């Protein structure tokens, strides 16, 4: 897993497309698939490639991508958030005066991290999700009871 940061003054569809093309052609030219984990910003999709490049080029790039979006209301669950937290603590825990310094700091941090990446011990599973996220899941048994009671009342009324 490589971590690559892309910073800039704007976040347009063209900006995103150029960065993705760089990842596909420069960073991972021999990869059959490039896996992206990213947020749901409206420019972060393959349609943006068609705004930046001719259709054949956009299609070529899109075919090499495997995109995974972080959940809109649960991004704290994602490994990407853990990586961002580590990078923030180790690299961005102070005021950075300008974009040139930011780029230099992120480049140095990326090189150090990517030369000896840390494994993430992901412990969240489907089995534990209903326990840990109880408020987000319906109580199926309770709902079934309520439906049964409602059906019983309706049958008594008839």
In short:
With 158 residues, the protein is mainly alpha-helical. It has helices at residues 13-27, 47-52, 55-63, 79-91, 99-115, 126-132, 140-157, and strands at 34-38, 65-69. The chain has one domain (13-156).
Description:
The chain is mostly helical and 158 residues long. It has helices at residues 13-27, 47-52, 55-63, 79-91, 99-115, 126-132, 140-157; strands at residues 34-38, 65-69. The chain has a two-stranded parallel ribbon with strand order 1-2. The protein has one domain.
- Biggest sheet layout: 2 strands, parallel
Question: What does the overall shape look like?
Answer: elongated
Structural class: mainly alpha
Q: Provide a count of the helices.
A: 7
Q: Roughly how much helix do the residues carry, as a percent range?
A: 40-55%
